[in-house]
Design goal:
Layout (H helix, E strand, L loop, with lengths): L10 E5 L15 E6 L14 H7 L7 E3 L5 E3 L19 E5 L14 H12 L14 E8 L2 E6 L20 H4 L11 H5 L7 E7 L3 E6 L13 E6 L3 H9 L6 E2 L6 H8 L4 E16 L25 H9 L3 H8 L4 E3 L23 H10 L3 E2 L5 E3 L2 E2 L1 E7 L2 H15 L4 E7 L1 H4 L17 E6 L7 H4 L25 H11 L4 H17 L3 E14 L2 E2 L17 E2 L2
Parallel strand pairs: 1-4, 2-10, 2-11, 17-18, 17-19
Antiparallel strand pairs: 3-4, 5-7, 6-7, 8-9, 9-10, 11-20, 12-19, 12-20, 13-20, 14-15, 15-16, 21-22
Helix pairs in contact: 5-6, 7-9, 13-14
Length: 567
């Protein structure tokens, strides 16, 4: 099997050198402050799928490789990116060999070795571990230390794109000596390790107060002696997008604000204060509705929201389709995002080669057709206008995180659904809880103790294979995985899993695109995911903060070591 040259065309050769302005010695620029209005609840991305947790963790723990702001694959802890051409990827595509940079040490001064990488694989792949990033390790047969600096990852099938493991903020390296007693079911119990990971990144944790604030200081053992420019860092969580935007753009209290999910005119008025700059870029971020195919009824106890109990009415594809048909996506874009949003009918909206046009019918709202569909399916309006069949009412608990734009979306969608005879109870949950990782909380988006939930996420890099792996049958969150996993709808299709397996061993970029579109189309045409808006990432930074390079393909904080104070 030959590797498509195009498939590896986005790999930057050699080690990555950021194009940052010349900096003085480490710590010379004093303090930098970051605000994420969704507060981190853990600093271990293997136990959380929340962006707030992945990105705050990325300040401390790092992967072997990552994607730059243009989507190029670049070396990070590794000395170079392995390819077939340089001998790092085997000719038969069944293994990839990474070599660590020489001289790397953890923030505690101990050496980073290949054994740490091997341990991290064992940690995530442990059958009782409930690893949130397990899809990154699909098809991994073994991870071996060849010597202190060399790691060989062997796959059980040829992998034309072998860069999901230890690439990007979702798949960093953990220190073996710190986490060695945290394998399997013990993983979420290791509070000290999960809150204060020892890392190789530019900063190290001084104090972590979950769902509130993280205090950090420059890592004294960071590999570049002149970086980071800032001696200390505050990572504040909580509040809302408007308060975060004001804190950078109007008051200047903070240097960087993430995910400013605000109406366009509100954002422009803030920027007019002159203290900061709004930055935005499109990647693969999609605001969507997730449809629960299982029954979240609390009377089911530990078996609620598991495949043992199908949903009483959302298993009817006609109902799911009607929910989608009733939505006016263009209006949602207009009120919520303006130029930072596009109506979409796909959960994989980019890169262009993977963007399907087969589902574009969703771009036109059709209330009349949605009503006909439900009529024909036997759902009859009752005296109160709500449809029912065989004693089952179309009554939905619709949840999302607390955010002004999302609450506006909820109100509009509730109204549209009422026009087709479906009633909705709206629920919003603090983002820190909703996107949290506490397996004991009933309110996380993984638990999905509701009928419909709304949020956005995306995939790292330019290849969607790992992302599409979230909807495999065995990726559904459940008690046995401590409610970790990416398959929120609890969707299961042997045909889908088979296509994903085919993609894993397909090298031709056009055939990969065909398979990727086919899987996207299956999810869309089964209406288990109802996409709404292809969102650009929108953040803001102080006019005195230099070096910011907004990255939609990895952590936004990917190059924080290059941030500096503009004098």
């Amino acid at each position: 099997m030959r590797t498509s040259r195009c498939l590896f065309g986005a790999i930057a050769a050699g080690s990555f050198l950021a194009a940052a302005a010349a900096q003085a010695e480490r710590g010379s620029d004093g303090h930098v402050s970051i605000i994420y209005w969704q507060a981190p609840s853990i600093l271990n991305p293997y136990l959380s799928g929340g962006t707030k947790d992945l990105e705050s963790s990325s300040l401390v723990i790092e992967p072997l490789g990552r994607h730059d702001a243009n989507g190029n694959l670049v070396a990070w802890l590794a000395e170079s990116v392995p390819t077939v051409a340089n001998g790092g990827v085997s000719e038969d595509l069944t293994s990839i060999t990474w070599k660590l940079r020489e001289g790397l040490v953890w923030s505690d001064g101990s050496p980073l070795t290949s054994e740490d990488v091997v341990f991290t694989a064992d940690y995530c792949m442990h059958p009782q571990g409930g690893c949130a990033q397990l899809s990154n390790f699909d098809s991994v047969q073994s991870v071996e230390a060849i010597d202190d600096l060399t790691i060989q990852i062997t796959f059980d099938v040829p992998k034309p794109y072998p860069y999901s493991v230890f690439v990007g903020a979702q798949s960093p390296v953990l220190q073996r000596s710190q986490f060695q007693d945290c394998l399997g079911a013990r993983a979420p119990e290791c509070t000290e390790q999960n809150f204060n990971p020892i890392g190789t990144g530019p900063f190290r944790v001084v104090e972590f107060r979950p769902n509130d604030v993280i205090t950090m200081e420059a890592n004294p053992n960071y590999r570049d002696p002149d970086k980071p420019a800032f001696a200390t860092l505050t990572f504040k969580g909580g509040g809302d997008a408007a308060a975060a935007g004001r804190a950078v753009l109007e008051t200047g209290e903070f240097d960087y604000a993430w995910n400013l999910q605000l109406a366009p005119d509100v954002l422009q008025n803030m920027q007019n204060a002159g203290k900061g700059t709004v930055v935005s870029a499109f990647g693969t971020l999609v605001e969507r509705l997730m449809v629960n195919l299982t029954d979240p009824n609390p009377e089911l106890g530990d078996e609620r929201a598991t495949p043992k109990h199908p949903h009483p009415f959302l298993t009817d594809r006609n109902v799911r389709q009607a929910l989608s048909m009733a939505v006016d996506r263009d209006l949602l874009v207009e009120i919520g995002y303006g130029q930072a949003g596009k109506a979409t009918c796909n959960v994989v909206p980019a890169p262009e080669i993977y963007a399907s046009t087969a589902n574009d019918g969703c771009l036109v709202q059709d209330i009349e057709a949605a009503n006909r569909l439900l009529d024909d399916a036997g759902w009859v309006r009752g005296a109160d206008g709500v449809r029912e069949k065989d004693g089952v009412r179309l009554s939905i608990l619709y949840q999302t995180s607390t955010n002004a734009v999302r609450q506006d979306f909820q109100a509009l969608i509730k109204q549209w659904w009422s026009e087709i005879g479906i009633e909705s109870e709206l629920r919003n949950i603090s983002a820190s809880v909703f996107f949290g990782s506490d397996p004991g909380s009933p309110d996380t988006f993984q638990k999905f103790f509701a009928d419909i939930e709304m949020y956005a996420n995306n995939f790292e890099g330019a290849d969607p294979e790992t992302y599409l792996g979230n909807w495999k049958c065995n990726e559904n969150p459940r008690p046995e995985t401590q409610w970790q996993g990416g398959n929120m709808p609890r969707f299961c299709s042997e045909e889908y899993d088979s296509m994903l397996a085919d993609m894993a061993k397909t090298g031709d970029i056009n055939e990969r695109a065909r398979l990727g579109k086919a899987m996207n189309d299956m999810l869309m045409q089964e209406f288990v995911i109802i996409p709404l808006v292809h969102r650009g990432r929108v953040s803001a930074h102080s006019n005195t903060l230099g070096g910011v390079d907004l990255n939609t393909w990895d952590s936004e904080l990917w190059n924080v070591a290059d941030w500096h104070r503009v004098k």
